[in-house]
Amino acid sequence: MEISALSFLIAFQLVGIQYLLIEMKKIFDNLTKSADFNRKLKQRFYNSRLYYVIISSVIFPFIIIDMIDILQGGVTFYIVEPTMWSFLLDIFNYSTSLLMILLLGTILWIIIYISWVLNELGNDSYQDLIKFDIFSIDRIGGLKPFRNLILNTLVVYFVSITLAIIAYISPFSIFTYESFFLITLLLVGVGFFLMGVGTIRKISRGRIEDKVKIINKKYETEDQKLMDFISEGNAKEKLDELNLLSSTLETLYTERDRILQIHSNAKGYDIITIAKFISSFILPLIAYLQKLFHFSIKTIL
After folding, report:
1. Position 244 pLDDT exceeds 90
2. How many whole angstroms separate alpha carbon 191 and alpha carbon 198?
3. Burial of 131 by CB count in 10 Å (0-12 exposed, 13-18 middle, 19+ buried)?
4. What is the rounded distance in angstroms from the CA atom of residue 91 to the CA atom of residue 77?
5. N or C: less crowded end of the chain, CB within 10 Å?
């Protein structure tokens, strides 16, 4: 294991987790109009037992693998040189490894938590609570900070996986549990991105469609008034009112077309979003392919 990469990884994870916690607090404190719902979001994060389940499921397999490796004669500093300093160095080595896994599990918990929030916000019963500005410049109703949180979480997550591949995966034994585990985490990140963009798209288009329905209902009401005027046969006597109705209908029609255009543009993502995701996702792929290349070279030789 490359100690320098592991040390940098732990430092990066600590800074990344702290950054994500600060961003989550800022966003979730003002995400919806309901203070009770915002409080529910925070309580779910800090009081959920699922966090401990995730951490345990991430750490225990690695502990078992390390123990089996030692019992089967795996090389440790103490085996090479049986001194107190070697023993302490082994303890430090395994402790930092477990700390890295613990922090990676914490980042995974943040992803699962944000996924739960996305699922709640995607529920029709909660969508009216979301602060949404249909004419926001970000074209997703002012939800850009939440989308940025998803992307920033993925950047921290993918970079952590990249450094974990560099530190943990050996070119001599690339097809191991560690490899399978880290690749699985990589796929979880892809699913998280798709879910995040999909939910933001669903919320944006849902709220815009609600606005269109209101306009349609108003249009039908005003159109019926116009038809009533025409059927009464006294349109000339109420010309001003007739002109007002015609103007109202024209305005509603124009407004509906404008909002439908906003609806078609509310994709939940843009070029920058895709570029940021791909650039962060490709890092662990490159790291793993490099390990695979070295493994192939050593196999041939």
Report:
1. no
2. 10
3. exposed
4. 10
5. C
